[in-house]
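Deliverable D5.2: sample structural annotation.
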Amino acid sequence: MIRGRVIGRIWSTKRTDSLPQGALLEVEIDGGSRVIAFDPLGCGDGEEVLITQGSVAAGQFEGIKAPIDALIIGSIDEHT
């Protein structure tokens, strides 16, 4: 898993039919790199999130072959 912080939304008026309902968010990951991640949870700007990538991300959607390489799988409430 990768930890990051949501820094913005990506707006797309045209999307492939196999992309599930959700948002595309720009996330800055530890180290300063950025990734576009699919968000089925409704996360907001500034929120810390957990991301998974690759076939694990695409495999989370049953019955469809989702074209997703990075998926937000959790929101971090606090870390100790």
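Annotation notes: The first strand starts at residue 2 and ends at 10. The chain has a mean pLDDT of 87.
The annotation will be released with the project's public dataset once the embargo ends.
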